[in-house]
Fold this sequence. Notes:
It comes from Pseudomaricurvus hydrocarbonicus. The chain has 408 residues and is an alpha/beta fold. The chain contains 15 helices and ten strands. The protein has helices spanning 21-31, 52-60, 78-88, 103-114, 124-138, 157-167, 191-208, 212-219, 234-237, 246-257, 287-305, 312-339, 346-369, 380-386, 390-405; strands at 11-13, 37-44, 66-74, 95-99, 143-146, 175-180, 183-184, 187-188, 228-231, 263-269. The strands form two sheets. The chain has an eight-stranded mixed sheet with strand order 1-10-6-9-5-2-3-4, sandwiched between helices. Strand 3, helix 3 (78-88) and strand 4 form a beta-alpha-beta unit.
Amino acid sequence: MADFYQNGIVTTLHNLSHRPLEELENELRGFSRTRPMSLVLPSLFSELEGEALPNIVKQLHGADYLSEIVIGLDRADKSQYEYALKFFDELPQHHRVLWNDGPRLQALDAELKAQGLAPKELGKGRNVWYCMGYTLASNRSESVALHDCDIVTYDRELLARLIYPVANPRFNYEFCKGFYARVADRKINGRVCRLLVTPLLRALKKIFGELEYLQYMDSYRYSLAGEFSFRKDVLNDIRIPSDWGLEIGVLSEMHRNYANNRLCQVDIADVYDHKHQELSYDNEDGGLSKMSIDISKALFRKLATQGITFNTETFRSLKATYFRIALDFVETYHNDAVMNGLSLDIHQEEKAVELFAQNIMKAGDAFLDRPMETPFIPSWNRVISAIPDVLEKLYNAVEEDNKEYGSI
């Protein structure tokens, strides 16, 4: 059972009583009459053939309070898109599949690219951005949840707890971040959050002081969780990265746009496990190695907007400070694991810390060498300003794809 402690400057909503799912969903049905809800699922086609997504779809049958489910489908050809339409057809809720690689959405992407408004990288950020645009275009919901499609321990209570804070009309939250203990198969997981993000934030505090932004980021119990929910108006003005800095970028945007009392985090699962990335020691363009570089750059970019100045000496000091703090965390997590009868390999943990320390320097070098790098995707407000009928075009493209290749 979670504690009731409020850490940091963002409200934490705990799981203190293991309230029955039936009670939560009954309330959500009531909320849906005045604050309709939708779910966004960014997916790779390969996830349709995995073990997690079929169970997620089965679990979602009971989430009858949802007005719409929006599925973003990446890396799919025509036959795979047709397969996806049949795969998701069992969902009882109104739903649409965005064929991101299809000719209609590719044509729209080309139109955006011609004006410098299209996402610059393939990946989850781009997928989520187009799903956000479609959610605005469909206008079927006021509250929106988003979670990954590779959660092998998925139970629809996760969704109910995730969307409840922004769906309850008596709450004033615009955004909610999910968190959970990354423990599965008697191991402590979540290396990038445990061994990179938290010690890096603490190191940045040591060097630059207790900046409000650093306190804010350090308030989140699992900042890299791919599960969050928000009110629909958030979608208009948010700028998200297209790389692995997505989650850090979203949190930074919420800090920029809203007061802390409009933001919260919620405990959504006792057990959580999903697809694990390799560390990729020898490949900085893949796995957790690329992730650590992108995340570090996202933090450096945000701090630069706060007036912080970086140079080579700064990054050298940051690396050394981070390294010492991270090694202390390895001991902390090892002791926590031992007391709970879990396994944790100190050698592998310290190898990860060594890799992340190197990548902090690489991220710093990239930040200094390419000061004009702009990985953020433009906000939908900006895109609509440039192309006033863009949401209508996006909506029609998705509808025509579903009509041509589906059974509607």
